[in-house]
Amino acid sequence: VQLIGINKVFYADDLETHALNDVNLQITKGEYISITGPSGCGKSTLLSLLGLLDTATGGEYTLAGHNTHGLSREERAAIRNKEIGFVFQAFNLISDLSVAENIELPLTYRNDISKALRQSMVEDALQKVDMQHRANHYPSQLSGGQQQRVAVARAIAGNPSLILADEPTGNLDSKNAAVVMSLLDQLHQQGATICMVTHDPKSALRAQRTIEIFDGKIVVDQINEVTQAIA
Ligand code: ADP
Ligand code: ADP
C-alpha cells in the first residue's frame, strides 16, 4: 500500500470538511497496523479509501501494484474483490445465508475462481477460524464472537493482499473480543497484512505499528516496542 499526499474533502450543505489532509502512508506486505485517533479525525474515511469504497480528492494511492487513480467504479470493485478483505464492527453477515454461503458470497463476484476452487477456499477459511463444525448454521444461531469469526473467514477466504478491520471487537464482550484479537494475531503470524481501526489502546498494541490521526493528519506513526505481551 502506498498513499502519497492523499486529501479527502467532503462538500455538504455549503460546508467543506477536510477529512484527510496530506496523508502519506506505506504499508508493507505482512505488516499489522492499528489506526487510532478521536472520533471524527478521519479513520473511517482512510479505511474507505484504502478499501476502494471511496476515492480521494487528491493524491495517489497504489494497492498491490495497481495505481488506483481514475479507475471506473467497476474497475475499483474488481480490484477490491480480489485484494481486500473487510471486517466490520457490526459483522455484516447476511442472515438468510448459511455460514459457508456467507463466506462464499464475495468469491462468487470473482471471475478467476471456479466453483470447485471456491468450495475449498471456503473450507480453508472455516478451518483457519475454527468454525468448520458450524458451516451449515445461520448467523442467528451463533454468538457475537462466532459471527465475527465467520466475518473474518469471509474476509480472508479470497487470500486478499490487505485485511481492513473497522473496530472489529466494538460489538463484543471482553471474552469474545479476546478470541477475535488472537485470531488476528494468528493471521498476522501466517503472513496476512492487517490494518485495524480501533478506539481501544490495548487492542492497538496488538499491532506492530500504530498510526494516530488527528484532524485528518497522521500525527504519530511508530513501531510498537512492546506488542502482545501487554495486551
Ligand atoms: P472517524 O472515523 O475518525 O470518526 P470519519 O472519517 O468518519 O472520522 O470523519 C472525518 C470527518 O469527515 C468528520 O468531520 C466527518 O463529519 C466528515 N465526513 C465523513 N464522511 C462524510 C460525508 N459522507 N459527508 C460529509 N462529511 C463527512
Ligand atoms: P449495531 O450495534 O451497529 O446497531 P446490530 O446489532 O443492530 O448493530 O446489527 C449488527 C449487524 O449484524 C447488522 O448489520 C445486522 O444485519 C447483523 N446481524 C445482527 N444480528 C444478526 C443475525 N442474527 N443474523 C445475521 N446478521 C445479523
Automatic annotation (TrEMBL):
GO terms for molecular function: ATP binding; ATP hydrolysis activity; transmembrane transporter activity. Pfam families: ABC_tran. GO terms for cellular component: plasma membrane; transmembrane transporter complex. Residues 1-231 form the ABC transporter domain. It comes from the Bacteria. Keywords: ATP-binding, Nucleotide-binding, Transport. SMART domains: AAA. InterPro entries: AAA+_ATPase, ABC_transporter-like_ATP-bd, ABC_transporter-like_CS, ABC_transpr_LolD-like, MacB-like_ATP-bd, P-loop_NTPase. Signal peptide: none annotated. PANTHER family: ABC TRANSPORTER ATP-BINDING PROTEIN YTRE, IMPORT ATP-BINDING PROTEIN. Belongs to the ABC transporter superfamily. Macrolide exporter (TC 3.A.1.122) family. This is ABC transporter ATP-binding protein. It comes from Agaribacter marinus.
